[in-house]
Every structure is written in structure tokens, then in C-alpha cells.
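A.,

Following up on our hallway conversation. C-alpha cells first:
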């Protein structure tokens, strides 16, 4: 009975190790992708802010021309 228990424990350890590696890879892969998306959002926000400033300046010019 001791040997079958040892095989079961070894199988369980291999299974748990495989699950840990799988979840670890998923976690770090997801974290990497999330960081990349956050950087892209920051870039888009900066471009958006620049466009907002340009629009405000153009609106002021149009108002002056309408007078």
C-alpha cells in the first residue's frame, strides 16, 4: 500500500505543479498585456488632449471671423 500511495502522491505533485505553471503563465501573460494596453490608453489620451486644445483654438478663430 505504501508504493501505490507514493505513486498517487507523485501524480498529484505533477498535476499541481502543472497547474501552478499554467496559472503562473496566464497571470504574467495577462499582466504584460494589461500593461501594454495601459500604455496605449495613455498615448491616446495625450493625443486626445492635444486635439482638444487645437479645437478650442480653432473655435476661437472661427468666432473672431464671424464678428
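Then the amino acids I'd put at each of the 67 positions:
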Amino acid at each position: 500500500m505504501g508504493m501505490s500511495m507514493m505513486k498517487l502522491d507523485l501524480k498529484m505533485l505533477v498535476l499541481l505543479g502543472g497547474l501552478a505553471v499554467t496559472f503562473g503563465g496566464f497571470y504574467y501573460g495577462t499582466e504584460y498585456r494589461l500593461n501594454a494596453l495601459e500604455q496605449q490608453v495613455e498615448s491616446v489620451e495625450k493625443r486626445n488632449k492635444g486635439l482638444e486644445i487645437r479645437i478650442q483654438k480653432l473655435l476661437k478663430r472661427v468666432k473672431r471671423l464671424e464678428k
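The mean pLDDT is 90. Curious whether your intuition agrees with the design.

B.
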